[in-house]
Amino acid sequence: MINAILGKKLGMTRLFNENNEVVPVTVVSTSGCRIVQIKTKETDGYTAVQLCFGEKKVKNVTKPLLGHLRKHNITKPPQVIKEVRVDNVEGIEPGSEVDISIFSENELVDVQGYTKGKGFAGVVKRWGFGGGPRTHGQSDRLRAPGSIGSQQPQRVPKGRKMAGHLGNELVTIKNLQIVKIDRENNLLFIKGAIPGNKNSIVLIKKTGKVVKPKQEQQVSQDKKKLK
Fold it and tell me: Which residue, 74, 80, 102, 216, is the most exposed by fewest CB within 10 angstroms?
């Protein structure tokens, strides 16, 4: 059984639950997620499924990748290809679309995506440095990093916090709740924020956990107190 799906982040909105409480959600469209390749223990040494999402121009795809896609009945080059480990590949066929029915409401999922890229940033913005003095005409030291080394060793140590590329990192946010599922339009409403810009591609993976209703949580807490 497939335990993950690729989708496009459409943006954020809000919903109201049964108690008329506001719940911030991120809307993800999963329409168009297809299976490219199936890997088995006999051929590859492990069981996995390659998923694809989106579309890309043919001129921007290498010929080996085009051949790989056509071999598995994928005519249009996808924007993203991800591989997901599975326990069983029975009933899964290349070229078929992944159904959103693998998820259920109140289920917890892990969402993986690339954060917003913010270009080159200094140490104040990137690492939260306090900056230099703002008096006595020291205007050139306001956002400077300061000293980066000493006599021993006479080099810059690895991992020194300095200016550089900020954002565009692969991040996984765990245990996010699926508040609502629109099966007709293949939309997932996930509680909270997920990484990436609008229209960015994210991977949503099942965790096997479900959010308990508040009444059940209260009963379990009372039992712990009695113990």
Answer: 216
